[in-house]
Amino acid sequence: MVEYDEFGPEKILEVYDSKTGMRGFTVIDNTALGPAKGGIRMTPSVSVDEVAKLARTMTWKCAMAELPFGGGKSGIIADDRAMDRDRKMEIVRAFAKAIKPICPSQYVAAPDMNTGEAEMAEFALANGRMNSATGKPATMCVRPGVKCGIPHEYGSTGYGVFHAAKVAAAHLKMGLKGLTVAIEGFGNVGTFAMKYLTESGAKVVGISDSKGTAYLPQGFDYNKMMEVKESQGTVAKYPGAKILDGPAVFELPADIVIPAAIPNSINEKNAGRIKAKIIIEAANIPMTPATEEKLHKAGILVVPDFVANAGGVISSYAEYVGKNPEQMLKLVEKKIVRNTKLVLEAAKKSKASPRAAGMDIAMRRVRDAMKKS
């Protein structure tokens, strides 16, 4: 059930195309700061309720990152595993045409679950406006060298998560060098987070994917892990690693835990067994606010999702205004570092959780913009 309040959602558009069988929807949560920004997820079970919650998260994320975007999200009800590439692109094109009345004037699309740079290219072409979607291929330009795409494959979210972890460690008077890390999920976010963390001297001792958790107390070699994942299809094939079940990644003896996969992976069943001093939320909604509050009271520093994983939407903004990948990464670092420090210092001063402190900042920014509109 979609919940309505002073912030929104402002608009929910449901679309259907009888020719292709495409069914989808876009939730525009709030546009006080600018057009709603959010990805398109394609799953057989995606719902308006799910998308509305994610759209609200985007409202706070964009406000926290100080971007001229509001919050939005889209869903297409389809199983991409049950269709070939041509069929999938047909569905994406139909969706792009169906929401053209609100895109890009009120909503700007991006990749999400089961959509990537190829889908964003098809979406933009079908829409007819290059600024209707971000996360497009790097070769897709308005004209050569100008306003090219910046796909999420550049690792902007993982890079931001790394900087959030660095700030959080410094907040607790620790340096990253020598700290141990456990990462749930080894997709785009988890791989880049590991890359930058290991380059800074941290030891990634635990990594999970859908096949299980690999644990190696002395730490994994990043390049070797990438080779194993690519050749074997799972981190659980890493030579010499102890293999545990997937959820065990949260219970490992590590200084930092990074949930970077599915929602609600940290819950009432396993939260009490977490040994980490710091949790960096790389995934969207990896735990409920109530669980976060319990961990905060237990002395664990939790950097919330809308602060830590904003690298993706910052990258989207960089593409939207025509910056190149190098400029994008500098912007991600600048904004993630600034806002993580801001939230953690505000939380310390008010003795509130980082989520409560961050929400107070984000809500104030949106309310101020709503008063001016």
Q: Largest sheet, order of strands side by side?
A: 12-11-10-9-13-14-15
Please tell me how large the radius of gyration is. 20 Å
The CATH topology label of the largest domain is: Rossmann fold
Label the structural class: alpha/beta
| Mean residue pLDDT | 95
Which oligomeric form is depicted?
single chain
Query: Can you tell me the CATH class of the largest domain?
Result: Alpha Beta
User: Which geometry do the CA atoms define?
Assistant: globular
- Number of separate structural domains: 2
Low-confidence regions: none
CATH superfamily of the largest domain, called what? NAD(P)-binding Rossmann-like Domain
Beta-strand percentage? 15-25%
Q: What profile does the largest beta sheet have? A: 7 strands, mixed
Give the termini distance in whole angstroms. Answer: 28 Å
Helix content bin: 25-40%
